[in-house]
Amino acid sequence: MASDLEEQKKLLLPILQRAEEIQALEPRMAYYCRLYAIKRGLELPKPTKEISGLIKATFAQCEKDKAAVKPDEEADRLYCENFALNVFKRADKVDRAGRADMNTCKAYYAAAIFLQVHVAKPQLLHWYPA
C-alpha cells in the first residue's frame, strides 16, 4: 500500500509543487497546473485515501482561484505555451552559455511540466469548463 502511495505521489506532487512555486506571480499557470494534477489523479485506477484527499483539496483550490483566473480557452492556450517556452528558453540560454548548474536542471524540469500542462490544456477546459 505504501508503494502505491509513493508511486501516486510521484505522479502528482511535482506538478503541484510547480503550482505552489509560481502561484504568487503566475496564478493563471498555477491554476492550470492544479487542473492537470487533478486530471492525472482522477485517471489513477485506485487512488489511495491520501491521494483522494489531495485531489479534493486541489479541486477546492481551483474552485477558489477560478473567479480570479477567469479561464479563456484561446487566450490561455497562448499564455500557457508562451509561459512554458519562456521557462525553457531561460534555462537553455544559461546552458548554452556554459553556466548550467542544478538550478538550470530544475528549470528544464519545470519547463517540461509546464509543457505537459500546455499540451493537456485543451482537454482540461473541456473536462472542467469555465
Please tell me about this protein's structure.
It is a single chain. The chain has helices spanning 2-22, 27-42, 49-69, 73-96, 102-127. It is mostly helical and 130 residues long. α1 packs antiparallel against α2 and α2 crosses α5 (102-127). The chain is globular, with a radius of gyration of 15 Å. The mean pLDDT is 91.
Distance between the termini: 36 Å
> What overall form do the CA principal axes indicate?
globular
Structural class: mainly alpha
Strand percentage lies at under 5%
Radius of gyration equals 15 Å
Chain-averaged pLDDT? 91
What percent of residues adopt helix (DSSP H or I)? Answer: over 70%
Number of helices: 5
Element order, helices and strands?
HHHHH
Biggest sheet features: none
Core attributes:
130 residues, 83% helix, globular
Topology record:
Blueprint: H1 2-22, H2 27-42, H3 49-69, H4 73-96, H5 102-127
Helix pairs in contact: 1-2, 2-3, 2-5, 4-5
Question: What's the short story on this structure?
Answer:
The protein contains 5 helices and no strands. It has helices at residues 2-22, 27-42, 49-69, 73-96, 102-127.
